[in-house]
Amino acid sequence: MFLTAKILFFAVNGLLRVAMGFDIGLSTKCVVIPKEMGMCHKIGYSEMRLPNLMGHTSMAEVILKSTTWQHLAHTECHPHVRTFLCSLFAPICLDTFIHPCRSMCVAVRDSCAPVLACHGHLWPDSLDCNRFPADEDMCLASLTKEYKYLHKAVLPKPACQTCPAVEEFFTHKRVLEVFCDSNFAVKVKLSKKRTVFGDQEYNIECQVEFITQGSLLPYETQNMIQQWLLINENCTQRMTPTHRPMVYLLVGNIEEGTILVKQAYRWQRRDSQLTLATQKWRYHKCL
Predict the structure, then answer these.
(1) Considering only CA atoms, which of 281, 69, 267 is closest in space to residue 170?
(2) DSSP-based three-state secondary structure for 84
(3) What is the distance between the alpha carbons of residues 93 and 48, in angstroms, rounded to a whole number?
(4) Residue (of 104, 142, 136) closest to 19 by Cα position
(5) HSE toward the beta carbon, residue 253, CA cutoff 13 A
(6) 248 φψ region: left (φ > 0), alpha (ψ -120 to 50), beta (else)
(7) pTM of the full structure
(8) Rounded to an integer, what distance in angstroms lies between the CA atom of residue 217 and that of residue 262?
(9) Sign of dihedral through CA atoms 203, 207, 213, 214?
(10) Mind giving me the DSSP string for 221-258?
(11) To bridge 86 with a disulfide, which of 40, 97, 226, 268 should be the other Cys (CB 3.0-4.6 Å)?
């Protein structure tokens, strides 16, 4: 649901709290959201207010400071992480600034702070949730409860973990034994490139070989593995030592609602053992 539609939804349902707004006056202007801010594209509006709610006064500063958050947004660590970040870095052009509510900040922080910790960072003071208005004020509220109601099936979440061992020498029989003790196996093609800001950006292609956990669908499993690779970027870096595309088979379990990758097999072009294992798996009977 786009942000403008969300604001109308909040207003109708009493979630857009009417009390204290921040008057814009003549000190700000509307500008087009730059192409470099990919996380704030396709969110329901194309223009933002400058200066923004982070106090950035120039577009160059906005782009530079928001770049560090693009990766977090791509992990989808919370359903509203993009809404939260864009309401601060690229606030919609209205007659007043609409701050995110404290409850939205807390919900996003609780889900995404562990992802930042996985990369060696703490939740920053600049996003201290106490700086945002309480829900009874005029603010952008979280739809966490409604989201859970509309999506009754809670999907497993990827988490920060120790990088799995990468196997390069194995037999198809050993791989089948590992399959028997696993909930999923996903073939992943990884490649990377350097952005204009000097950061690494990954291209991830997934193909599900099997999934045995509940009613998970292949596309859901693909999305979860993509998120796992973004959250555990240190593991992804190890698996892509060069800019040449690399192919792996990631095997793991789903434990207490968390995705854990326990084994990674290097899938080389002429490797017959993994191909044989995935073919035999369809008819294989585990002991």
Answers:
(1) 267
(2) helix
(3) 5
(4) 136
(5) 7
(6) beta
(7) 0.76
(8) 21
(9) positive
(10) HHHHHHHHHHHTHHHHHHH-SSSS-EEEEEEEEEETTE
(11) 40
Residue 198 tokens, joined: 């000097």
Based on the number of CB atoms within 10 Å of its own CB, is 85 exposed (0-12), middle (13-18) or buried (19 or more)? buried
Q: In terms of Cα–Cα distance, which of 67, 66, 45 is closest to 54?
A: 66
User: What whole-number distance in Å separates Cα of residue 80 and Cα of residue 19?
Assistant: 23
Say how many C-beta atoms besides its own lie within 10 A of residue 88's C-beta.
Answer: 21
Phi first, then psi, for residue 136 (nearest 5°) are -80, -10
Q: Retrieve residue 108's tokens.
A: 């996003």
**The tokens of 129 are what?**
């949730």
Average pLDDT score over the chain: 83
Among 188, 103, 202, 187, residue whose Cα is nearest residue 144: 103
Distances (CA, A) of 141 to 21, 101, 193, 255: 14, 5, 37, 31
Contacts of residues 271-277 at CB distance under 8 Å and 24 or more positions apart, as own/partner, are: 273/170, 273/171, 273/172, 273/175, 274/172, 274/175, 274/249, 276/172, 277/172, 277/175, 277/176, 277/179
Contact yes or no for 43/3 (Cβ under 8 A): yes
- Quick: pLDDT tens for 220-268: 889 899 999 999 999 999 999 888 899 999 999 998 889 999 999 999 8
Strand partners, 204: 190
> Which of 18-22, 121-125, 220-224 comes out lowest in average pLDDT?
18-22
Structure token pair of residue 104:
């939205």
Q: Quote the radius of gyration of the chain (alpha carbons, Å).
A: 22
